[in-house]
Design goal:
Layout lengths: L2 H6 L13 E6 L3 E6 L12 E14 L7 E11 L9 E3 L3 H7 L5 H6 L12 E6 L9 E7 L10 H9 L3 E6 L6 E3 L5 E3 L2 H5 L6 H24 L11 H4 E11 L1 H12 L5 E5 L19 H5 L5 E5 L12 H9 L4 E6 L10 H10 L5 H8 L4 H21 L16 E4 L1
Parallel strand pairs: 3-6, 7-8, 7-11, 11-12, 12-13, 13-14
Antiparallel strand pairs: 1-2, 3-4, 4-8, 5-6, 9-10, 14-15
Helix pairs in contact: 4-13, 6-8, 11-12
Length: 422
């Protein structure tokens, strides 16, 4: 789950352009001030990247957070293309409406990550992808779904997602509406997270909220899988993209609550062949936010017969699978291949874009040093990004492509900061 929800149940268990510049902009009611700028790390794969976004509406399903509305989602595709994006051709990290909300006081994103409200030019951050570019020809490619942490937008894992796309995967990122800090729709609607209001309620049953959130996300993910199966032509997508999707080779990667979603969806839906859980717990707190509420999620109670990878951090109550009741139960009950790695010196945000963006913002005064340490620990940002990319891609290559670089055979001298358990 995302950091604030993790903190609520804690008893349960620098990358970018050197010398990042600042831009002078006008802040409402505050005159002209300097906004911090940041850059995403370069992808490491062979292919240029394309991206496109699509709205999906689940007409038969009532929105669990807003009864009386159809459930609607935004997804983005990230995929190999033929020509790299340069300059202004690079797609924005966030569309303007989402960027404005994300960066201001009161948004779940600002609350979660602790950056100074209004001090960062989120709309100015660029990806390495070309919007609506034609897909690279040459046959079908494995598909990877990506789900961010509870309360986080689908953009908050872009550095990892872009890297996977540059290595030849088609990655589909999912925004879970009214859960994510904000979701901007093509018609101008901005759906903001219900979590700030819910967390302020006296007597909130935290365990019930987590169960509802996880189930909603699993339902969202299975709906997206249904929709991918229906994309038989390119009417809604850039040229060649629908034909690129190999729906017999689908994996899922998620951070925090997205990692929990990935493994629970694997349990519930055989279309997911493999899953990676980046620091997402598999147990629920009691009504008051303490203790462990039983039963555990069914994925932990039953285990998995297909491959999965756990990547933990040194957050309190996290790390090794032994330290979490849900991870430990999953481990004991699973018969498929599985491994657990922990990044020394890391924190909950280390597997997200916080690891590459926040250190740059801290150098410009947009993030306090204590907040930075709480979010991403004291692991070197470049090493954290490299480790995340390397272990996730090694796992996916091994089980979706049949290419084994043997990184996951045991402890590796390439990554002495990674603790390996099997």
């Amino acid at each position: 789950m995302a950091a604030a929800l993790l903190a609520a149940t804690a008893t349960l268990g620098v990358i970018g352009a050197p010398g990042a510049a600042v831009a002078a902009v006008a802040a409402p009611g505050r005159g002209t001030e300097q906004q911090a700028r940041a850059w995403l790390p370069q992808p490491t794969g062979l292919y240029p990247i394309g991206t496109t976004s699509l709205q999906l509406t689940d007409d038969p399903r009532d929105d669990p957070w807003k009864p009386g509305q159809h459930r609607k989602l935004m997804i983005s595709f990230w995929y190999p293309t033929t020509r790299p994006a340069t300059g202004n051709d690079r797609a924005p990290y966030m569309v303007p409406a989402a960027a404005d909300h994300f960066g201001n006081a009161g948004s779940w994103g600002q609350r979660e990550n602790g950056f100074e409200p209004g001090r960062t030019d989120w709309a100015g951050i660029r990806t390495h992808a070309r919007a609506d570019a034609p897909a690279l020809p040459g046959g079908k490619r494995p598909v990877v779904l990506y789900s961010a942490g509870f309360g986080d937008p689908r953009t908050w894992g872009t550095a990892l997602v872009e890297d996977l796309a540059s290595r030849g995967y088609v990655v589909v990122t999912v925004d879970h509406t009214y859960d994510a800090s904000e979701v901007a729709f093509p018609d101008g609607d901005l759906a903001t997270s219900v979590f700030p209001a819910l967390m302020a309620r006296p007597g909130l049953d935290m365990g019930a909220l987590l169960r509802k959130t996880l189930q909603t996300r699993v339902d969202d993910t299975r709906f997206v899988l249904d929709q991918l199966a229906g994309l038989r032509h390119d009417a809604q997508l850039p040229a060649g993209l629908a034909a690129l999707l190999d729906l017999d080779r689908i994996g899922m990667v998620g951070h925090s609550g997205g990692g929990s979603t990935a493994l629970q969806t694997m349990h519930d839906d055989p279309r997911l062949k493999v899953g990676v859980n980046l620091d997402g717990q598999l147990h629920f707190s009691g009504p008051d936010g303490t203790g462990v509420q039983l039963p555990l999620p069914t994925v932990a109670e039953d285990g998995l017969t297909r491959p999965f990878l756990l990547m933990g951090t040194q957050e309190s109550g996290s790390g090794s699978y032994h330290q979490q009741p849900g991870w430990d139960a999953l481990w004991q009950h699973s018969t498929g291949w599985h491994a657990d790695v922990t990044l020394t010196g890391s924190r909950h945000g280390s597997y997200t874009d916080a690891q590459s963006l926040l250190p740059q913002l801290a150098r410009q005064g947009a993030v306090a040093s204590t907040t930075l340490t709480d979010d991403v620990g004291d692991v070197r940002p470049d090493r954290a990004v490299l480790a995340t990319r390397s272990y996730v891609s090694s796992f996916l290559d091994r089980w979706l492509r049949g290419h084994d670089d043997h990184l996951l055979d045991g402890p590796s001298p390439r990554f002495p900061e990674v603790v390996y358990e099997r």
